[in-house]
Amino acid sequence: MPLISRICQEMASNKHFSKIPSNLSNNSDATDPPRPYVPNTVTFARRTNSGRYVNYSRDDLDSEIGSVDFNNYTVHMPPTPDNQTTDPSISQKVEEQYVSNSMFTGGFNSTTKAHLMDKVIETETNHPQMAGAKGSSCAIPGCDAKVMTDGRGQDLLPCECDFKICRDCFVDAVKTGGGICPGCKEPYKNTDMTDQGDQQRLPGGEGGGSKMERRLSLMKSNNKSAMVRSQTGDFDQNQWLFETSGTYGYGNAFWTKDGNFGSGKDGDGDGMETQDLMSKPWKPLTRKLNIPAAVLSPYRLLILIRVVVLALFLSWRIKHQNQDAIWLWGMSVVCELWFAFSWLLDQLPKLCPVNRSTDLQVLKEKFETPTPSNPTGKSDLPGLDVFVSTADPEKEPPLVTANTILSILAADYPCEKLACYVSDDGGALLTFEAMAEAASFANIWVPFCRKHTIEPRNPDSYFSLKRDPYKNKVKPDFVKDRRRVKREYDEFKVRINSLPDSIRRRSDAYHAREEIKAMKMQRQNRDDELLEPVKIKKATWMADGTHWPGTWLTSASDHAKGDHAGIIQPPSDEPLHGDSEGFIDLNDVDIRLPLLVYVSREKRPGYDHNKKAGAMNALVRASAVMSNGAFILNLDCDHYIYNSEAMREGMCFMMDRGGDRLCYVQFPQRFEGIDPSDRYANHNTVFFDVNMRALDGLMGPVYVGTGCLFRRIALYGFDPPRSRERSSGCCGCCFPRGKKKKNHIPEENIALRMGEYDDEEMSLYLVPKKFGNSTFLLDSIPVAEFQGRPLADHPSVKNGRPPGALTIPRELLDASTVAEAIAVISCWYEDKTEWGSRIGWIYGSVTEDVVTGYRMHNRGWKSVYCVTKRDAFRGTAPINLTDRLHQVLRWATGSVEIFFSRNNALLASPKMKILQRIAYLNVGIYPFTSIFLIVYCFLPALSLFSGQFIVQTLNVTFLVYLLIISITLCLLALLEIKWSGISLEEWWRNEQFWLIGGTSAHLAAVLQGLLKVIAGVEISFTLTTKSGGDDVDDEFADLYMVKWTSLMIPPITIMMVNLIAIAVGFSRTIYAVVPQWSKLIGGVFFSFWVLAHLYPFAKGLMGRRGRTPTIVYVWAGLIAITISLLWVAINPPAGNTEIGGSFSFP
User: Fold this and answer.
1) Which pLDDT does position 323 carry in this prediction?
2) Residues 397-432 pLDDT 10s
3) Which regions span the lipid bilayer (predicted)?
4) CA distance linking residue 916 with residue 698, whole number of Å
5) N- or C-end of the chain: fewer Cβ atoms within 10 A?
6) Would the CA dihedral through 322, 325, 326, 332 be positive or negative?
7) Spans of the chain, pLDDT less than 70
8) What is the DSSP string of 486-544?
């Protein structure tokens, strides 16, 4: 289909449209008289193969009817006493102020409403986002004067950061403050207040225009470069952008002085020339650090040796049967064949491990240093939207979520480019008010972090550090500031923890008041009649005395889990400035705060809301309408930012050469609150430091659900740039695919394309059928793609954008935009679209994260694994055995679902490399290993009970094979430890829990998956309980809790059977006439192998050390001895009829 972005450009440059009067035209003639403001109409069109444009009305989008040429008619109404022309800038200010003070609700079969809020929380707060700051007052603490205005009443904001300041404070800042803006701490560009009115107007016009105009791409050029054409005669977008200073952006366009977008060759523009780009050496943002050959070469050689030895060993085992116990031999051989196959699937993707590093200094030089294209040095980094997902405040404590939000707001990323969206899928008032409290405390916490370079920027983690907090702190007021902030945080925790009781008491008080009112009304209407008890729905009340539109504490119609309206609390119209209330000296500190938006999607009975994946897709659409960051970082509510520069590290990969082909950057998961011995392998370091590094050498790591930086257009289901020229298949070197020769735009100039459609075949009417009917969402797609491009600062950078294109902060919101965001999070929006099937997070699996990453890799995208020196993110993990088993059960169940779905790697497209395909195949197959693992764990016991072994005799050949296989396994483990950096203890813990999980959760997952496929039984999903960290007496109290679950039955059975079998084997051998010591040793060796792996499980069943009664061990020993003697009596050794054989009591 003609791309939306190309339509906008070609409409702007084609002669056929030169007669259309519009503020989007390329008219830059300064001599034209100013025209009155004319409301614009939004028209849709597509270009046919003949070059004509076909008109689309709003009613024709679904039917693609209309064959007339594109025309635009505008009716001018003269001003009358009832129709006075209003300056759009003034009306825009009024509307934005109204939006900032309102909570928007709406959804299916309901009107979108804006609830004007006087206050959000009961405590007083000056936070402009959540408290609803009103009026254009001076933002200087202690000053309540009005800001400077021009003759039309428009605010005069002397700094580009839009810090509101009154005339007196501005004069003081210029005369006594060195001309430094109190908000961003940057020097004022112009200290003459008489010129401020002109500086506030956009260079493209009088500062007016509709909201759609200001949000769409605005491009200007001089006549000599306006019609840059490629060799095919089409408009060459990249060449035009490179040779001129023309840029466009979704509210983030870079405007050159006086609106001049010339190339700079004639001295009439400030464009950057190719010579300027080549005058200094080009530096990469990232480097690939290969594993040393001294480690990697032996590693690969050992893999090859072990493969050969396994093949020879299995061949020998098949040829040498144990005729005395053919059933035992058969079961063991089948299990060993599967283990060899499973090990091969796990080991082959590890052949090409890599490490990577970033250079943050180069990132700062390229994007935040003054250059000819960016003379002010404003940040040129793209927008970033951070998603925090939560669903149940009872299982996910609000204090944990609030700390995660605070770590995001304090992150080291340009605050005007950062937005935080909190998804409350439960619609709970408790979560909303906890977020409001966090926004209030951010006024103090965020400036404190910036001033003293605090790490980590999660207040709970920071104040819980056991190291010296004053180390490397050079500012003399740090001690004083820290004490004050610590005191404020203690009060903040008290408020958060008291919110449930506070909400309940408030709701009870309002409910009692409503009952009294109803009773009075009843008495007034019925004087002498017998009064009946008044029944009123017990609502949940907000702090401003209105009903909470989400879920009530006492469920009611339209206010229950799964049945409530959509809610959005938009950011403020203020320039997002915090207020420290005089607690901290912030003379040299940037006190601005990022955007913070509360979102709770609409839920109604009868709709499948698709759990977490549906909530994430709702956030994708809402953020596209409101802020449209080119990149998305998703975090669980218990995963906070531990490294404030983590976002910049991820952006290094996205903005580097070739970064436009990266769909996401995955960070490793690190956990806190794990017991020192890591009994249940909660750190999972083998997966995150071995497997993921190895996948990074292929097409990239899998997506693991949190701590992942996404490219927005990759989530939209588009193919990567230059995908056709690179798509040669999994065996492209041997069987190259033929290419279709078409005369159209060069491959690198096509930015948005879906796999089954060519650029010329996909018509515009299909776009709403894929993404929905929101025009705001459709308009944001090409803009997000452009902002996500790397800088075109080197001739080898393909599909780049010009430097300095994203230096203007995003625009503020109006009511229509927020209303559109309410519409896109409604429960019906995804009907008859491709959301969840191709676009966004993919539905149909408990592990939606793995499936979503697989779909991107399947379209040819690549991903990168970013391991930072300081952990990027940290979270919590369940240390209780039962919770850990349930977590593993959910992961394994999702893998079984993947295996039986069309997401099976066997059905992958040719764009996926063969080793990457094997890695995804292993993801779907590994739970089935549990069937063979359980059988193999019972084999030693069966061998001891029967007196037989898996081989006829323990001959030298068998022992040599067994020795070589064991030695190669140990050597491979040591080399993996060498190149990955993990410890031997962590590797052994992983091996132990592999057997624990394989004999419990994985088997249950296979059974559940088979039930779903065969019988259609749905799988229930249970949230993993997050620890609130309130148990100060015992940090690891959950570790010793024994909560019974049926998943424990198989491991317990295996342990008991093997212990009894060892006792039986010893008894049989000792009392036998001809002891079979070789068979005993073989069986006992493998039984101890099983029991050693199950030791952490047994330790977890014992509870807290020292609390298990001694009698339990005595009883266990007596039972084992009794059963073993009973077995010998029932089945005595051959040639004996008495217990004990030749032994007799005196």
Assistant:
1) 86
2) 999 999 999 999 999 999 989 999 999 999 999 999
3) 296-314, 326-345, 919-942, 954-974, 994-1017, 1052-1074, 1080-1098, 1110-1130
4) 6
5) C
6) negative
7) 1-101, 109, 117-136, 142, 150-154, 190-280, 527-531, 571-583, 723-766, 1018-1036, 1072-1073, 1075-1076, 1103-1146
8) HHHHHHHHHHHHTHHHHHHHHHHHHHHHHHHHHHHHHHHH-SSSPPPPP------B-TT
Which residue matches tokens 């299982």? 395
One-letter amino acid for residue 164 of the chain = K
Beta bridge partners of 664: 710, 863
pLDDT at 69: 41
* Of 899, 933, 921, nearest in space to 338 by CA: 933
Count of C-beta atoms within a 10 Å radius of residue 257: 9
* Residue 623: count of CB within 10 angstroms of its CB: 26
* Secondary structure of residue 398 in the 3-state scheme: helix
| CA angle at 974 for the pair 973 and 977, rounded to the nearest 5° | 85
CA–CA distance, 401 with 390 (Å, rounded to integer) = 8
Confidence (pLDDT) at 336: 94
Spatial separation of the C-alpha atoms in residues 792 and 273, rounded to whole Å: 11
Q: How far is 1041 from 514, CA to CA, in rounded Å? A: 45
| Residue 456, pLDDT score | 92
How far apart CA 615 and CA 624 sit, in angstroms, is 14
Token digits of residue 564: 């409530």
As a whole number of angstroms, the distance between CA 431 and CA 174 comes to 43
**Which residues have C-beta within 8 Å of that of residue 613, sequence separation ≥ 6?**
836, 840, 841, 842, 843, 848, 852
Angle at 314 between CA 933 and CA 694, to 5 degrees: 65
DSSP β-ladder status, 286-290 and 566-569? unpaired
CB distance 484 to 452 below 8 Å = no
Task: Tell me if residue 31 falls in helix, strand or coil.
Answer: coil
Q: What is the pLDDT of residues 647-661, one digit of tens each?
A: 999 999 999 988 999
Yes or no: say if 337 and 310 are a contact pair by the CB < 8 Å rule: no
Strand pairing category for 566-569 and 595-600:
antiparallel
CB 930 within 8 A of CB 998: yes
Q: Which amino acid is at 724?
A: R
Tell me the torsion sign for CA atoms 738, 741, 742, 746: positive
- Which residues have C-beta within 8 Å of that of residue 348, sequence separation ≥ 6? 915, 918
pLDDT value, residue 944: 85
Cross-strand pairs, 113? 105
- Rounded CA gap, 824 and 828, in Å? 9
Long-range contacts made by residues 918-924, C-beta under 8 angstroms, separation at least 24? Answer: 918/345, 918/348, 918/349, 919/349, 919/695, 919/698, 919/702, 920/702, 920/854, 920/857, 921/345, 922/342, 922/345, 922/346, 922/349, 923/702, 923/850, 923/895, 923/898, 924/895, 924/896, 924/898, 924/899
Instruction: Report d(CA 1035, CA 676) in Å as an integer.
Output: 11
Q: Using CA atoms in the order 27, 29, 31, 36, what is the torsion angle rounded to 10 degrees? A: 20
Rg (CA), the chain: 34
Q: Is 374 helix (H, G, I), strand (E, B) or coil?
A: strand
For the record, the structure tokens of 237 come out as 């977008």
Phi and psi at residue 1084, to the nearest 5°: -65, -35
The pLDDT of residue 751 is 56
* Structure tokens that stand for 582 in this block: 């005089």
Q: How many CB atoms lie within 10 A of CB 175?
A: 10
State the pLDDT at residue 899. Answer: 93
The whole-number pLDDT of residue 813 equals 77
Output the pTM of the full model.
Answer: 0.78
Of 1084, 840, 1045, 1052, the C-alpha closest to 954 is 1084
C-alpha span between 1113 and 85 (Å, rounded): 90
Please work out, in degrees rounded to the nearest 5, the angle formed at the alpha carbon of residue 50 by the alpha carbons of 48 and 52: 60
